[in-house]
Amino acid sequence: MRYEDGSPYVYTPGSGVPQGVQAVNVGWLERQGEFPRGEVPREFVHALAVICRDNSTNRMRGWQSCTLPHPEGRPPYPVVVDVDGTEVTLGSAEIRLLAHDGRWLIAPNLVLHYVAAHGYLPPREFIEAVTAGRAIPEPPSGLPCF
């Protein structure tokens, strides 16, 4: 799935985004599209990895593969990363962060791979929210999200 950064989140309606909360997409990339590239702070990459390990939400069955070009050949499937000694499989969940203005910034957890392997430069507000650790936890199973 490809969605422009900042576009309204519509990937899985009814997926725990409270009514009245504005949720926007970040980092939904595909081969058939350009995306911003650039350097990100080192602390951001580590903070993003920890959020992907500890705060992945809205899990799906199976894994989304990376469709971006990989100079070394076929992309890894599934994408697995080491986060402080823990193996984390990417591509089957989302991460959700709170922007300063109250919007939810929702990205596939594969965004970690896009940043680390493909030089994706997320919006400044996403970098700030990740670095500040403003992850939105998944509500307990069976309880409504508020």
Automatic annotation (TrEMBL):
<protein>
    <recommendedName>
        <fullName>DUF7919 domain-containing protein</fullName>
    </recommendedName>
</protein>
<feature type="domain" description="DUF7919">
    <location>
        <begin position="1"/>
        <end position="130"/>
    </location>
</feature>
<dbReference type="InterPro" id="IPR057679">
    <property type="entry name" value="DUF7919"/>
</dbReference>
<dbReference type="Pfam" id="PF25535">
    <property type="entry name" value="DUF7919"/>
</dbReference>
